[in-house]
UniProtKB/TrEMBL annotation:
This is ATP-dependent DNA helicase 2 subunit KU80. It is found in: Nucleus. GO terms for cellular component: nucleus. It comes from Urochloa decumbens. GO terms for molecular function: ATP binding; DNA binding; DNA helicase activity; hydrolase activity. Belongs to the ku80 family.
Length: 685
């Protein structure tokens, strides 16, 4: 077998105890096959069913026994036939014997590959609730040891997923079965996972194996003369959708070797000479810096780059409580001592245990590879192992720089008047709602991260398979098993309906009718919050549970010198007629023009700057981009000689034409908006 090629045999219990989750078994195994068709098209998969009424396997034909075990699909390269075999799983009528199924699956692998090297794996999904047949010789424990020896000899691993619903009585038979499965695990050939819900079953089987690759191998530098050899792996990383590529159907159907790939070439042409192609040596990138573009060559960009040395350095220790959990960024990594290095193992263990006892964490500076253009700062949290054969280690989380943190200040509920705070009845109703939807009740946890698959990925692979079979198929509705992840449990909702009704009774609920372009009131009511102080405090009117803020309505209809931006927002919010918005925009344009005409040498630029910003934002929200674009163009052409510095100020604040990306009704592209001031200057020269 090829180094990266895997052979997998699925051992599926279809007996009566598994009938309730057969659909989930189909889904999880189908997703595994779909991912192999995308990422590992040369992998081979076989399917063995046990608990069937019929018997169909080579061992039964040659030796007898091994009843109710059926080979539904021989070990072959994954194709549509593999997926089809999983969709046709029968509901068995007799209890299954998982030891017989393991022996049959093991025999299939050995017959197929013999002693050749490669990745070979069995996957057992069962309830393990029924008694196993006694072996012809010896005990069941002896049989397990014999099977484990064969698996070790041929380097075959196995995953075992045991599904038992909550409330199932744990009898002597199940205890014996569990003991036998854990005997496999103790021989280091089997990984055993127990789940108690169909949703957990969906995520229990790793449908795509990702090879562990080190992010860093080198020294953890505690000081200039104290360094520890460590390896760093990713502990968590977001699983993304497969990359969609462009393919062509222009190749002749008879060409079996056609790749159907599309090659894209780009040509750069001059604006002055549209027919002339600009060669690479005559092109250069640049950055907008105020109204001008600063060209920077690739050589200059390389020279200005920060090129730190590869390494991980300790900066110091701090209390665990001083590192806020919500500051963790990106993926989590795992620091382990260099394999086989006893001194590194002892050093990591000693430091991790000391940090754990003192409730400390370490702050480190990381450069994962030579030539990396950035430095990462992060926190090491001790991970002290409770298992004898597992080493102590550190979890690593990236910490933000000052530029990465977003601070949002909100008013405290305690600062609101008592009339705006929840009553005891309302608070109790809200508390009951939280308790009702508790995902971690005593003794049980629902939607464990390690057993909860991404429903969007599951749906994508399912639809990809459907699309391959039916090109014109529509996107199906979300399956019931995936809705359990994306929606509250309907059984819980039905049982706790009185609590939900009490929540509605505790609050005064009103219908919130949709208003045409209503977001103006919501978004513009605060635009001047950091530009000018309001004339008067806005009034609070109760609208259902939440209050809605309305701007003051006195003297609306004109823009005055005291607070022009607030007056403009108040006119927009009034909407007493269909022409009121247009009137507000025209009034703001007249006022802003008058301000500029009376401004000389920058003596009063701040106020027209605020007016321009408010006018532009309003025209985007009200979908009136042409009003602003024409106003800016005409104003620039008329006053550029008198207030040139003002337009440079506008350019530095990125107050330019409204583009299509900001307002669909605009005829201005993003490039035109970005280069507006440059083109106007060039035209005037």
């Amino acid at each position: 077998m090829a180094r990266n090629k895997e052979a997998l045999v699925l051992l599926l219990d279809v007996g009566p105890s598994m009938h309730g989750v057969l659909q989930e078994v189909k889904n999880i195994c189908s997703t595994l096959v779909h991912k192999k068709l995308v990422y590992n098209r040369s992998d081979e998969v076989g399917i063995v069913l046990f608990g069937t009424k019929e018997t169909c396997n080579e061992l039964a034909k040659e030796l007898g026994g091994y009843k109710h075990v059926t080979v539904a699909h021989d070990i072959k390269v994954v194709d549509e036939g593999t997926s089809q075999a999983l969709q046709n799983l029968p509901a068995g009528s007799v209890p299954g014997d998982f030891l017989d199924a393991i022996v049959v699956g093991l025999d299939m692998v050995i017959r197929k590959f013999g002693n050749t090297k490669g990745k070979r794996r069995l996957c057992l999904i069962t309830s393990a609730q029924h008694p196993l047949r006694d072996p012809p010789e010896g005990t069941k424990e002896d049989q397990v040891d014999t099977i484990a020896d064969q698996m070790k000899r041929h380097d075959i691993k196995m995953e075992c997923i045991v599904f038992r619903e909550p409330g199932v009585h744990h009898d002597a038979v199940m205890e014996e079965n569990d003991r036998l499965l854990y005997q496999f695990r103790n021989r280091s050939v089997v990984k055993v996972v127990q789940v108690d819900s169909p949703t957990s079953l969906l995520g229990a089987l790793k449908t795509r194996n990702v090879l562990p690759v080190t992010v860093f191998r080198g020294d953890l530098e505690m000081s200039s003369n104290f360094k520890i050899k460590v390896w760093v792996y990713k502990k968590t990383a977001e699983e993304k959708f497969p990359t969609l590529k462009k393919y062509s159907d222009k190749a002749p159907p008879s060409d079996k070797f056609a790749s159907h790939e599309v090659k894209v070439d780009y040509e750069y042409k001059s604006v002055v000479e549209p027919d002339k192609v600009v060669p690479p040596d005559q092109r250069i990138k640049g950055y907008l810096y105020g109204p001008q573009v600063v060209p920077i060559s690739s050589a200059e960009w390389e020279a200005v780059k920060f090129k730190p040395e590869k390494g991980v350095k300790l900066l110091g220790f701090t209390d665990r409580s001083s590192i806020l959990r919500h500051h963790f960024m990106k993926d989590v990594c795992l620091f382990i001592p260099e394999p086989g290095n006893t001194k590194a193992t002892l050093a990591v263990s000693a430091i991790a245990r000391a940090m754990h006892q003192m409730n400390k964490v370490a702050i480190v500076r990381c450069v994962w590879r030579q030539g990396q253009g950035n430095v990462t700062f992060g926190v090491l949290t001790p991970n002290v192992s409770s298992v004898n054969n597992v080493q102590d280690s550190f979890y690593f989380n990236v910490l933000p720089f000052a530029e990465d943190i977003r601070e949002f200040q909100f008013r405290s509920f305690s600062s609101l008047p008592s009339s705006s705070q929840p009553t005891e009845e309302q608070q109790e109703a809200a508390d009951n709602l939280v308790k009702m939807l508790d995902l971690a009740p005593p003794g049980r946890e629902v939607l464990k991260p390690e057993f909860t698959p991404n429903p969007m990925l599951e749906r994508f692979y399912s639809y990809l398979d459907l699309k391959a079979k039916q090109p014109d198929a529509n996107v199906p509705a979300l399956e019931r098993c995936l809705r359990r992840i994306t929606e509250p449990d309907p059984d819980v909702i039905d049982q706790q309906m009185p609590l939900i009704q009490n929540l509605g009774k505790a609050f005064e609920l009103k219908e919130n009718p949709k208003k045409k372009k209503a977001r103006t009131q919501d978004r513009l009511a605060y635009t001047a919050g950091d530009q000018a102080k309001p004339v008067a405090e806005p009034s609070m009117e109760k609208d259902g549970v939440l209050g809605v803020l309305h701007p003051p309505t006195e003297n609306i209809g004109q823009i005055r010198d005291l607070n022009p931006v607030q007056d403009f927002e108040a006119m927009l919010a009034k909407r007493s007629s269909s022409t009121w918005v247009q009137k507000a925009i025209e009034e703001m344009q007249k006022y802003t023009t008058a301000l500029l005409e009376n401004s000389r040498e920058g003596d009063n630029y701040q106020k027209p700057l605020e007016c321009f910003a408010a006018l532009r934002k309003a025209c985007i929200i009200e979908q009136e981009p042409e009003e602003f674009n024409q106003f800016l163009t005409k104003t620039y052409e008329r006053l550029k000689g008198d207030v040139a510095n003002f337009f440079q100020l506008l350019s530095s604040k990125n107050i330019s034409l409204i583009s299509k990306e900001e307002a669909p009704d605009s005829d201005v592209t993003e490039e035109m908006a970005r280069s507006f001031y440059l083109k106007q200057e060039a035209a005037s020269q």
